[in-house]
Amino acid sequence: MTANMTNFEKQVWGIILAAGFSRRMGEPKMMLPYKGKPLIQHAIEECLKSQLDGIMVVVNPQINNLAEAVNMEGIDRILLNHQSHEGMSTSVKMGVQSLPETAQAAVFLLGDQPSMSSAEINRIIEDYHNHPDFSIIQARYLDNPGHPVLFKKHMFHQLLDISGDEGGKSVIKKCKQQVFYSNMNRKAIPDIDTPDEYRMLVDGELN
Questions:
Q1: pLDDT (tens digit, 9 = 90+) per residue, 97-133?
Q2: Domain annotation covers residue 113
Q3: Dist. CA 169–CA 174, nearest whole Å
Q4: Of 76, 79, 77, whose CA–CA distance to 61 is shortest?
Q5: Single pTM value for the model
Q6: 159 φ, ψ (degrees, to nearest 5)
Q7: Is residue 17 part of a domain?
Q8: 122: domain range?
Q9: Would residue 71 count as lying in a domain?
Q10: DSSP state of 187
Q11: pLDDT at position 15, please?
């Protein structure tokens, strides 16, 4: 990101979803320590290294110190989702509604995937540019679709109609003919949802 970037060039935004309640973990997972920093900062750092033109993070204001933890240099917007209890869809919609008019696409990322790298994000962005006939670009790990997922601007209105804790899955399912799968040539990046998964991450058993 550069100070003189034109509005047209600042077209692909990243929306990091980090507003859950961590019910399966039993404590705020975004703030768990990993390699000397809160878990959420790993996803943010990879986004900052990537070709994303703008980055916003959606957080749960009820989680102590989370908004401060994501307030890193290079982050354009921090969104406080007071409706987090209604599910992931509220964070998706808040992110879409907060995009500037100049945004041409949004890449959705999960804050609880510290193993994600800028390489996966950049592959999504490159395929967005290389395959303009598709409306959705979704990562595929071997045979499994996952995150990141990019939606072009003309799909935003459909994301505003989702509800509950589904994220954008229903839109992807409904528009499956418009999805390009971006092959990552690696196994799926794990979400860190449970104490066992966190332990395995810290012990180096999740790669």
A1: 999 999 999 999 999 999 999 999 999 999 999 999 9
A2: yes
A3: 9
A4: 79
A5: 0.92
A6: -65, -25
A7: yes
A8: 12-189
A9: yes
A10: P
A11: 98
Task: Quote the pLDDT of residue 5.
Answer: 46
Q: pLDDT, tens digit, for every residue of 175-188?
A: 999 999 999 999 99
Task: Domain count for the chain, please give it.
Answer: 1
> Which tokens in the block code for residue 69?
């933890």
Is it true that the peptide bond before 148 is cis, omega within 30 degrees of 0?
Answer: yes
Across-strand partners of 105? 12, 152
**Domain CATH number, residue 62:** 3.90.550.10
- Reported as a single tens digit per residue, the pLDDT across 3-32 is 334 444 569 999 999 998 888 887 889 999
Tokens 């994303």 belong to 52
- The DSSP result for 45-58, as a single string, is HHHHHSS-SEEEEE
SS3 content of the chain, % helix, strand, coil (to 5): 35, 25, 45
Helices 39-49 + 118-130 axis angle, to 10: 40
Q: What is the pLDDT of residues 29-71, one digit of tens each?
A: 999 999 999 999 999 999 999 999 999 999 999 999 999 999 9
At position 186, the amino acid (one-letter code) is: R
Q: Which residues contact 89 (CB under 8 A, 6 or more apart)?
A: 162, 163, 164, 165, 166, 167
Residue 1, domain member (yes or no): no
Helix ranges, the chain (H): 39-49, 66-69, 88-97, 118-130, 156-159, 169-174, 195-202
Query: 101 phi and psi, to 5 degrees?
Result: -60, -25
